[in-house]
């Protein structure tokens, strides 16, 4: 694992060992850090490069990617600013490490900022897996490159039927907003709470294999 201290986010970078495999951008949940999802990334796409930044906001000492006003109530102005900062980091890291656009794997708070990237900075990601994500904005938003044609990307949203944090109607609104933005969204609701299960792993791995790995050069 390596770190480039000239980039704007504290992060971990694991170089690829499988040439041609799409890199993963790992985005942790509240209280996590740049090490949290490295094992998950390696399990989901063995040999892929892993880029894992640490959120720059602290909430009671716990790292997050953007501020919130209360549980489930986001500071949307801060979210837009932080999403732009993260998009800038991705662009700089791609140059520094020689990477194509990554697939975001985000959990909870990390999934929420990944959703904001999909809506506001459409060129930043090649795809995304959003684990226990909420709709990041209350009203429709305009992407920063709205005047530039850009096809949507494959997105998998995995929700928990018993999730106490993400109501079903909120997850449905998220899926609707992503589809309206042109992304190809698969949505599965699992018999789970906010924590991840083996079913999440299986579905995420199947999604990566069908949407990306199967199309990679041998």
TrEMBL record:
<dbReference type="GO" id="GO:0016787">
    <property type="term" value="F:hydrolase activity"/>
</dbReference>
<dbReference type="Pfam" id="PF02230">
    <property type="entry name" value="Abhydrolase_2"/>
</dbReference>
<dbReference type="InterPro" id="IPR050565">
    <property type="entry name" value="LYPA1-2/EST-like"/>
</dbReference>
<protein>
    <submittedName>
        <fullName>Hydrolase</fullName>
    </submittedName>
</protein>
<dbReference type="InterPro" id="IPR029058">
    <property type="entry name" value="AB_hydrolase_fold"/>
</dbReference>
<comment type="similarity">
    <text>Belongs to the AB hydrolase superfamily. AB hydrolase 2 family.</text>
</comment>
<keyword id="KW-0378">Hydrolase</keyword>
<feature type="domain" description="Phospholipase/carboxylesterase/thioesterase">
    <location>
        <begin position="24"/>
        <end position="209"/>
    </location>
</feature>
<dbReference type="InterPro" id="IPR003140">
    <property type="entry name" value="PLipase/COase/thioEstase"/>
</dbReference>
């Amino acid at each position: 694992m390596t770190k480039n201290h000239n980039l704007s986010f504290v992060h971990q970078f694991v170089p690829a060992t499988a040439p041609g495999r799409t890199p993963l951008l790992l985005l942790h949940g509240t209280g996590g850090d740049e090490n949290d999802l490295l094992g998950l990334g390696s399990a989901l796409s063995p040999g892929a490069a892993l880029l894992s930044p640490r959120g720059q906001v602290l909430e009671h000492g716990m790292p997050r990617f953007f501020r919130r006003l209360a549980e489930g109530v986001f500071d949307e102005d801060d979210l837009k600013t932080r999403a732009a900062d993260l998009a800038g980091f991705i662009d700089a890291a791609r140059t520094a490490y020689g990477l194509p656009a990554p697939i975001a794997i985000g959990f909870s708070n990390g999934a929420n900022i990944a959703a904001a990237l999909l809506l506001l900075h459409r060129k930043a990601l090649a795809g995304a897996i959003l684990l226990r994500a909420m709709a990041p904005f209350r009203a429709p938003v305009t992407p920063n490159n709205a005047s530039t044609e850009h096809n949507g990307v494959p997105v998998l949203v995995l929700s928990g039927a018993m999730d106490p944090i993400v109501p079903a109607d909120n997850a449905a609104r998220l899926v609707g907003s992503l589809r309206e933005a042109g992304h190809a969204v698969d949505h599965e609701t699992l018999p789970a709470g906010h924590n991840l299960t083996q079913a999440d792993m299986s579905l995420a791995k199947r999604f990566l294999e069908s949407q990306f790995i199967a199309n990679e050069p041998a």
